[in-house]
Amino acid sequence: MSLKDTEKKLYESNSEIEKRKHSASVFDFDYKNNNLESEKKFSANKNWWNKMPFFQLNLETRAVIYFGGIVLAIIATIAGMVVGIYKFKQTAFSEDNVAVSISGNTIVDSTKSIKYSIECENNNRTKLKNVEVILNYPENFYPEENNQVKRISDRSSKILIGDIKAHSKKKIEISGKFYTAENYTVYLRAIMSYTPANFNSVFQMKSQIGVRVTNSPIELNIIAPKEILDKSSIEYEIKYTNKGTIPLKDLTLRIDYPVGFTFQGATLHPIDEIENGNIWHLGDLDAGTAGDFKIKGKVNGNRYDSKLVKATIFKNGNNEKEIVYSKAEGLTKIVVPPLAISHSINEQSFLNVNLGDVLKYKIKYANNGDKNLRDVIIKLKIDSPIIDYQKIKLNRGAFESSSKTITWKTSDIEGLRNIEPGANGLIQFEIPLKKNIEVKNSNDKNFVIKSIATIDSSDVAFSSLGISKNISNEVIIKLNSRVSLNTSIYYNDNSIENSGPLPPKVGEETTYTVHWKIANLSNDISETEIKAYLPTGVKWTGKINPQNENLVFNERTHEVIWKVGNLSAGVGYLSDTRECSFQIAVIPEINQTNQAIDLLSETILTAKDNFTSVNTTVKNEIKTTRITNDKSVKDSEYLVAE
Predict the structure, then answer these.
(1) Rounded Cα gap, residues 250 and 470, in angstroms
(2) I want to staple 600 with a disulfide (CB 3.0 to 4.6 A). Which of 152, 180, 294, 623 is the partner?
(3) Angle CA(145)–CA(146)–CA(149) in degrees, nearest 5?
């Protein structure tokens, strides 16, 4: 239908459009009347917003609140941004993303230059600043220094790395040499310190590597016999060489002897000869330098025992911890041949003696095999200038002066004709020592008696001992030096002039001079000291001769001490005696009339024998006014007169 037709129908009377029901509208009068009440209700209800407290405020107050809200919103936004940035920075670094490692050979040769790589890695989003590594190592590792590696002690070096960027790494190589024992394991420890770019704190990371050194810079050998007899002498030869390129300083050598070993001496004196005789101070050993010495001793054990001797060269590091440079071992097997012999002197196999002693010898022999041994011969060779051969007395056997040997055969001991399995025998005799010996020159010192007992039979052939059939046993004796002390008192003396009445008188002072003289025969001595007390009534005048002697007087204890120190062998024999004198004074009291007055207590000399390591003591008796040494003083002039 066209627009015109529609319009025509609309205004046509009784049209269909006209008959349609009209919809209610707010513009209709009836609608307004009918809905006025509800409209009023709605208007009343829509004022709830204006009734809130905020809208009850005046306009100025509401503006302030609006502005405060905006500020708070801005602050909250900024805080959120700061927290976000902080969280971002925090997640930019983690210690778990930092690593340090050491890589290189774990099995190396001593004295050869070895390279190791130290790698520092940063897997964080931020860089690491001031990165450095402290490399710790034992004293027997010697790193090579360069621009980045600086040695800060004998056990550590500092390695400067610098900064490491985010997600990157840096590597540095170090070189060094190991100087330690064969098959010795040492450790290189790296401590990496750094500061993350977003932190002020210093962090650390650690790593280490173990290195086994397959050989040693010092070649150390023990030459030990493969076989020895029970209770027989043994000799070890020690040899050492510095094969390295640097000197090794302050070295010590220790020998760990096998069980049953008795030290008898060495060509190089140990520093603990009195105790164990197993420590030697070698000192500094330059590159290419070698040394050697021999050790003598005696070993006891059972058949087929293996005697292990160990040698160690080391130096004491920090906290006295040993830094070992080289080790060596020697193995000796104890064999027991059919024939056995041993001898002792005064029930010992190693001892020190004095002139005038009598040596009591015992020789024991036995057949430890399973067959009879015929025509056995026993010999004892003993040669020393301190033996008084003229006074040797033998019940059996014969002494031959040209060879200094005593021999026993079947003609002397019937039991030697045939010794059955398990049988044994004993020979006893005595050998006296001279009471005095003559010292002619400086070589007449450190006297030793070495006695060797041997036994053999035509039925014995023990190949492991060599071509000789003799089974031997050795005993070593050292002679202590004879140290003598003479204490004498004079009135008329050439060194110090005395005065006062003789005999001494009550109430008047009389002075005397005390002389101490020392002689030393055959060994050097040390730590020599002489002591004596002055009785309380005796005064010290202070006069001594020679004035440079180390002679002191303790006023409180009244003790006189002369610190002599070292004395060479032959003093008083090849040269003058060592002498010192000092003056004393006495004023007798009335209760001492007709008595001899004590002037000096017992005098005691102590010293150490450097050859035998024996502590020597010599004593002189108390001295009184009865001065028998001074022949110018009459025997009647020692009693106190009124």
Answers:
(1) 44
(2) 623
(3) 70
Q: Three-class SS of residue 318? A: helix
CATH number listed for the domain at residues 227-335:
2.60.40.10
Task: Give the residue among 251, 245, 324 at the shortest CA–CA distance from 285.
Answer: 251
CATH match for 95-213 among 1.10.645.10, 3.40.630.30, 2.30.110.10, 2.60.40.680: 2.60.40.680
- Using DSSP, state whether 340 is helix, strand or coil: strand
Count of residues for the chain? Answer: 642
| pLDDT (average), residues 422-436 | 93
| pLDDT, tens only, 35-75 | 555 555 545 555 544 555 655 666 677 676 777 777 787 88
pLDDT-derived band at 12 (thresholds 50, 70, 90) equals low
- The residue with greater pLDDT, 564 or 44, is 564
CATH class of 339-479: mainly beta
Distance in angstroms (rounded) separating the CA atoms of residues 540 and 604? 19
Sheet containing strand 405-408, strands side by side: 350-353, 471-479, 448-456, 377-383, 405-408, 398-400
Helix (H, G, I), strand (E, B) or coil at 581: strand
Q: Which of 5-19, 217-231, 288-302 has the lowest mean pLDDT?
A: 5-19
**Domain boundaries along the sequence of the chain:** 37-91, 95-213, 227-335, 339-479, 483-637
d(CA 447, CA 147): 63
Q: In this structure, what DSSP letter does residue 188 have?
A: E
- E-strand stretches of 322-357: 322-335, 339-345, 350-353
Question: Would you place residue 463 in the very low, low, confident or very high pLDDT band (cuts 50, 70, 90)?
Answer: very low
Tokens matching residue 553: 């007087």
pTM: 0.54
Q: What are phi and psi of 513, to 5 degrees?
A: -115, 125
- Residue bearing tokens 């319009």: 7
1 pLDDT higher than 60: no
Q: Domain spanning 483-637: which CATH class is it, in words?
A: mainly beta
CA distances, 105 to each of 117, 133, 137, 213, 478 (Å): 10, 20, 15, 10, 55
**How would you list the strands of the sheet with 141-143, edge to edge?**
98-104, 114-122, 168-178, 141-143
**What token pair was written down for 99?**
């690593």
Place of tokens 């000399």: 605
The pLDDT value recorded for residue 464 is 43
Q: Are 177 and 211 a contacting pair, CB within 8 Å?
A: no
Asked whether this chain's domains 95-213 and 339-479 adopt the same fold, the reply is: yes
Tell me which residue has tokens 């010992």.
348
